[in-house]
């Protein structure tokens, strides 16, 4: 069992920045960030392999979002810069304790544990 607590959402204008945090009560194998708009599917944004620190980003996040983690590998930060109205969504932190193939690491089905979500709203 992994308990996840997110923080850091809010409202910003286009071009602004936000930093989301996710604290896990135990270091997972993978920790990912996903987002979802009403009526939409949960979309993978970025993930990190806790042990190695290797990261992967969705095309929509590349060049604008950056993942980092604390030394204890239990807190992960998603720095989001140059935000766009299209980034408006409920952002979820997710974790798994199991290895997963690289091609599946931004898929929601790979993750077992989920946080409650934090809202990000970007106005134009």
Q: Which stretches are poorly predicted, pLDDT < 50 over at least 5 residues?
A: none
Structural class, judged by helices and strands?
mainly beta
What value does the average pLDDT take? 97
Q: Report the strand count.
A: 11
How would you describe this structure in keywords?
single chain; 124 residues; mainly beta; seven-stranded mixed beta sheet; four-stranded antiparallel beta sheet; 11 strands
Ordered list of secondary-structure elements with their pairings:
Elements: E1 4-7, E2 10-13, E3 18-24, E4 30-36, E5 43-49, E6 55-57, E7 65-69, E8 75-80, E9 89-96, E10 113-114, E11 118-123
Parallel strand pairs: 2-11
Antiparallel strand pairs: 1-3, 3-8, 4-5, 4-9, 5-6, 7-8, 9-10, 9-11
Q: How would you explain this protein's 3D organization?
A:
The chain has 124 residues and is mostly beta strands. The protein has strands spanning 4-7, 10-13, 18-24, 30-36, 43-49, 55-57, 65-69, 75-80, 89-96, 113-114, 118-123. The strands form two sheets. Strands 2, 4, 5, 6, 9, 10 and 11 form a seven-stranded mixed beta sheet that branches. A four-stranded antiparallel beta sheet has the order 1-3-8-7, with no helix packed on it. A hairpin with a 5-residue loop joins strand 7 and strand 8. It starts with a strand and ends with a strand.
């Amino acid at each position: 069992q992994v308990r996840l607590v997110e923080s850091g959402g809010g409202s910003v204008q286009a071009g602004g920045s936000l930093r989301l945090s996710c604290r896990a009560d135990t270091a997972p194998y993978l920790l990912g960030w996903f987002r979802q708009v009403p009526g939409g599917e949960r979309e993978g944004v970025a993930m990190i392999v806790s042990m190695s620190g290797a990261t992967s980003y969705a095309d929509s996040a590349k060049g604008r979002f950056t993942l980092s983690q604390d030394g204890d590998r239990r807190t992960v930060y998603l720095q989001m810069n140059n935000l766009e109205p299209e980034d408006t969504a409920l952002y979820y932190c997710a974790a798994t304790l199991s290895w997963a193939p690289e091609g599946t690491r931004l898929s929601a089905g790979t993750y077992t544990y989920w946080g409650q979500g934090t809202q990000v709203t970007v106005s134009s």
